Amino acid sequence: MYKRVIKNRWILLAVTLIIFTASTIAQVEIHKNLPNIILSGTNGGNIDGSDWESGNLTNKINLIYYVSPSQQKVVQPLLEIIDDKNYPSEMLSTTIIINTKATWIPNSVIVGKVKGKAKEDTTKTYVLDKKEILLKEWSLSEDNPNILLINGKGEVVFIHTDELAEEIENELIDQIELLINKGESK
Q1: How far is the CA of 76 from the CAs of 2, 20, 62, 66, 73, in angstroms?
Q2: Residue 6 in domain
Q3: At 66, which CATH number?
Q4: Within a domain: residue 5?
Q5: Which residues does the chain have with pLDDT short of 50?
Q6: Which residue range(s) make up the domain with 71?
């Protein structure tokens, strides 16, 4: 009887782990709406201190970069390529979400730098994720920059969580232009 109880506990544990793992894998999926997350207070939010809600990323195409402070330089060339295309701001919005927990640099220093950048470039929205909430909830990569493209309906149409390469840049630009040409910014 004792062996059966132990065996049943192991089965229960295995089933629980499978269910838990399945529920936490790939929260962000192609052709599905982006899971709604709110960052506020000590968890993060917009660089001006207001709450940020992913559910508000609708009615235009949204390009999201989720990066650690050290990855910002890696995505800078892609940001410049997208900027050089001069897509209309009423059709395409860019959000840069910075994972401040991924560095030893104090949040106050990061906030100061990002506020300066936000003043220089008002075409982008800057968001802080101070407790890796989006990283965990959306199952993003901690080791690489994450790029998500959301259509006007809030559906994910492009995800990239690996190292950046030129073909990814081209694929992303093709996707943006396809959405704009199809009128999917609304």
Answers
A1: 61, 36, 17, 13, 5
A2: no
A3: 3.40.30.10
A4: no
A5: 12-26
A6: 28-181
Structure tokens given for 66: 């989720």
DSSP tag of 183: T
The Cα-based distances of 5 to 1, 10, 12, 16, 159 in angstroms read 6, 9, 10, 16, 45
Q: What is the C-alpha to C-alpha distance for residues 162 and 146, in angstroms, rounded to an integer?
A: 7
Tell me whether residue 11 is in a domain: no
Closest CA to 49 of 99, 114, 102, 121: 114
Task: Judge whether 102 and 70 are in contact, CB under 8 Å.
Answer: yes
Is residue 10, in this structure, part of any structural domain at all?
no
Q: Give the tens place of pLDDT for each residue, 68-95.
A: 998 988 999 999 999 999 999 999 999 9
- pLDDT one-digit tens code per residue, 130-145: 999 999 999 999 999 9
Closest by CA position to 71, among listed 123, 129, 138, 154: 129
Closest CA to 78 of 57, 93, 63: 63
Total count of domains within the chain = 1
Mean pLDDT (the chain) is 86
pLDDT at residue 162, as a whole number: 92
